[in-house]
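Human:
I keep going back and forth on a fold encoding question. Comparing notes only helps if you start from a blank page. Show me how you would write down a chain together with its backbone fold. Write it directly below this note and I will take it from there.

Assistant:
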Amino acid sequence: MEILIGKYLHDAFIRPFGGDVLVVILIYTFFRIFLKTNNKQLALGVLIFSFVIEFLQKANYVTWFGWENNKIMSTILGTSFSVYDLLAYFVGYLICLCFKD
C-alpha cells in the first residue's frame, strides 16, 4: 500500500502526510509480530528509526547506494527531507501508543 501511495497518489494530504503516518504504524506492527517487548519502547524505537531515515534523506543517502535513478528504491527510501514528515512520524508514534501490550 505504501508503494502505491508513493507512486500513484499525488494529492496534498494523503501522500505527503497520511503515507508517513501509516509507515510508522506498519513498521511498528511488523516488529510486534516478532518481538516481545513493551509497546511504548517499540513505538519509540520506530519513531527514532523514522527520524534517522528522514535526516539521512537530508544527506541524500540514496545516492550513497547508487539508487537515485531507481524509482522503486527512491520511493521506498525517500529522497527529500521535510519537517512535516517528522510531524507525521510523530502522529504515527502516538497512534502506536494506543495499541495495547
